Amino acid sequence: MNPPNLPHAPAEFIVLHSRRSTIVLEAHADEAPIWRYWGPRLPDGATPRVPLRETRPGPSFMLEVDQPLTLLPTFGVGWFGQSALLAHRDGLDFAQAITGCEVEWIELARAVRLRLTDAVAALRIDVTLKLDETSDVLTLQSTLTNLGTASIDVQWLAAGTLPLPGHAESVRSYAGQHVHEFLLQTDKLSRSLWKRENRRGHTSHDCFPAAVVTTPGATDDAGLVFGAHLAWSGNHAQQIEWLHDGQYQWQLGEWLAPGEGRVAPGASLQTPEIVASCSTAGFNGLAANFHTELRSRLNWPGGAMRARPVHINTWEAFYMDVQPANVMTLADAAAEVGVERFVLDDGWFQGRHHDRAALGDWWPDPAKFPQGLGPLVEHVTGLGMEFGLWVEPEMVNPDSELFRAHPDWALQLAGRPLLTSRNQLVLDIARAEVSNYLFDKLDALLREQPIGYLKWDYNRDMTTAGAGGYAAYRSQVHALYALLARLRAAHPAVEIESCSGGGGRIDFEVLRHTHRVWTSDCIDALSRVNIQRGFLQFFPPEIMGAHVGTAPAHTTGRTQSMGFRAAVALPGHLGVELDVRHLDDGARGELKAWIALYKQWRERLHHGLVWLGEAGDGLVWQAHGDEDANELLLLIYRIAPSTHRYAPSLRLPMLDTAARYRVSTVAPAGEQGAHWFHSTSPFFTALKTDGVELDGAWLAHAGLPVPRATAEACFIVRFQRL
Ligand code: GLA
Fold first, then answer.
1. Which end of the chain, N or C, is less packed with Cβ atoms under 10 Å?
2. Catalytic pick from 457, 507, 524, 579?
């Protein structure tokens, strides 16, 4: 039985192309555009030719109107799947359907705005799609405008709805917790709804706002994969739903607390952006697209990234026991091993001797720093290092001068207990007097001293987040962005790190205002291998805070060699988080040599592409190189003892199969120690001395021989095209 379709205005195909991907929508003047395609690049001029409904014989037990997946599926007028909008006006206008669609090209074949109107529910939703030519990244954003005479309550407005092909197979998302971020979770797609939601008020450790969808056969380097991320530092939701035409829809958006989506007549509600991409080059191809996009968002002082300076961060050396004399001797020891930026972590401000007091009182503790921070900053800068400072502006301890003066400045709900976490509450920074207070305090610190860097922390989840009785999750995030922007405008030379108990606030929007993230409070190198590999799926290495920590590691109790700790931190934005003063001469010398190695290679590590791979038998690797594979640095990590008699060869598909390469090992000066691969085979001896010439085709298809090694070891190899 073929039910007749209700007449629709004629179809117009909207086609967006980038280097390697294409989007096709079918627009009609009287409904939301129908999704026709998001996938690998189609040739110019290729369209479906035929409107979708003409190709779909209707099944039994269906409406006379055929309602396919659109860019804005809505509830109540013929769509039975998840809706991109759930809204009502005091119970009325609970059903929506687009009655008018205007196509506004922002840039032909690259960026388009669809102005979608519902004349019955009196609202307009503008959906903007931009497909970036070079990165293949699609940016999607929606703005709802209330055209009615009464407020509308929006419960859910997806930032966008994406189609996924019917052969989509599994979804890789990231779970985790404090000290264990980016825990890969793979779920098979099925007819059951796949959904992740975060209500913690910040990006969260346990529900990273992104996922990667695979198709059969997808690997690190080949096969079709799709990825999407919500550029937002607050509550969020995403869902993937199987549809009756065999494809899937994927929605991402802000999770709105009850009441947060109320839109007054004439007002608008704008969603965060979705940053999405597809690649036929597997996970590494997708990562490259995200890295390119993120790099274009970073707003560096002076307009361009400078070589990422080696940090020392004082947290694990002192915790809150910050004594200026000790801090200065640590600075001496740090400068001696080659550190370039000294970051004074928690414990420096008024009354901050433990985590039960003082947040909010952002001036130097007079007992610890009777003359202010000046002498310390002078000492540090006198050693040739930049000075950085830890702050946690959005928080307040009940035991603080700020809270005693303004108890009403904390987010709270009348009649509910003030729920503390790490003894702290969240300030209502959307209030002008609160953000002005914070701006003034931070501004004063930055004016008084030559502070080049702030580590901006956020150490709790949000609860009872009420302002005047209304939910304030959304307004907090916007106020954070505004405060960061204001501070950056006043101090454009200052770099900022986004930290939230490690990696609880890592996303593409906070990174418009900041320059690196503290990836995790876990500095155990073995744990870090996986955390960093998850991170690198979306973010480039130069913003990945990666420190050489103490042994045993404070958060896991495990011990790794200095070489392994340094080798794991090497490809990121390198830092040191240990008391360098207490290292014996051997360890200090080793650390110094690794820092020198980082300085030698950081430009190579922090530009271009990153490829991740696994060779089995406990070996994982990552390569950093230019797009044309002229020069690559390969880091091979043995993370578990071998169970093979011979280590497997490592195939390097990114190499040019038509080229020959000079292959040689890279090691810190005077390299020694148990972490290193021991091998007396002539090949490895040659690699370590003059290097060996090898064929790209052989390396890509048969692979590079790998020496035997004990577990927790790293082997670094350089490839130069001949
Ligand atoms: C958080 C951060 C740490 C450190 C402490 C200070 O936990 O992730 O690196 O700055 O706060 O209190």
1. N
2. 457
- Per-residue pLDDT band at 1 (split at 50, 70, 90): very low
- Our answer to whether residue 626 is catalytic in this structure is no
- 316 and 278 within one domain: no
In DSSP terms, 637 is beta-bridged to 620, 714
CATH number at residue 627: 2.60.40.1180
Structure-token match 């991109």, residue found? 84
Same domain, 387 and 433: yes
Which of 577, 604, 631 is a domain's end point? 604
pLDDT tens readout for residues 515-532: 999 999 999 999 999 999
Q: Residue 573 falls within a domain, yes or no?
A: yes
Name the residue with the closest Cα to ligand 1, atom 7: 501
| Same domain as 628, residue 557 | no
**Number of CB atoms found within 10 A of residue 695's CB:** 16
Q: Which two tokens stand for residue 534?
A: 């998850």
Mark whether 521 is an active-site residue. yes
Residue 413, CA distances (Å) to 202, 410, 424 in order: 19, 10, 15
Please tell me whether residues 267 and 394 are part of one structural domain.
no
Q: Which of 499, 516, 555 to probe ligand 1 with, by most ligand atoms within 8 A of CB?
A: 499
Query: Which of 93, 521, 524, 579 is an active site residue?
Result: 521
Residue 76 CA to ligand 1 centre (angstroms):
48
User: Do residues 190 and 173 lie in contact, with contact meaning Cβ atoms separated by under 8 Å?
Assistant: no
Centre of ligand 1 to C-alpha 490, Å, is: 26
Alpha carbons 615 and 618: distance in angstroms, whole number: 8
Please tell me the pTM assigned to this model: 0.97
Cα–ligand 1 centroid distance for 321 (angstroms): 14
CATH of the domain at 370: 3.20.20.70
**Ligand 1, atom 8, residue with closest C-alpha:** 501
Nearest CA, atom 3, ligand 1: 501
Q: What are phi and psi of 361, to 5 degrees?
A: -100, 80
Statement to judge: residues 632 and 669 lie in one domain? yes
Q: Long-range contacts: 241-244, Cβ < 8 Å, 24+? A: 241/81, 241/82, 241/193, 241/194, 242/189, 242/190, 242/191, 242/192, 243/69, 243/81
Our mutation pick for probing the ligand 1 site, out of 202, 312, 313, 345, counting the most ligand atoms within 8 A of Cβ, is 345
Boundary of a domain, candidates 238, 264, 293 = 293
Tokens of 651: 């195939």
Asked whether residue 131 falls in the same domain as residue 225, the answer is yes
Q: Are residues 26 and 144 in the same domain?
A: yes
Is there a domain that residue 199 lies in? yes
- Which residue segment(s) compose the domain that 685 sits in? 610-721
Total count of domains within the chain: 3
Pocket of ligand 1 (CB under 6 A): 315, 345-346, 390, 457, 459, 499, 501-502, 518, 521
What is the 392 CA–ligand 1 centroid distance (Å)?
A: 9
Q: Are residues 599 and 626 in the same domain?
A: no
CATH of the domain at 43: 2.70.98.60
Q: Is 4 within a domain? A: no
Cα 581 to ligand 1 centre (Å): 21
Nearest CA to ligand 1 atom 11: 501
Ligand 1 pocket mutation, candidates 313, 352, 390, criterion most atoms within 8 A of CB: 390
298 within a domain of the structure (yes/no)? no
Compute the distance between CA of residue 393 and CA of residue 401 in angstroms, rounded to an integer.
14
98, burial (CB in 10 Å: exposed 0-12, middle 13-18, buried 19+): buried
Confidence of residue 699 (pLDDT cuts 50, 70, 90): very high
Per DSSP, 287 falls in state: H
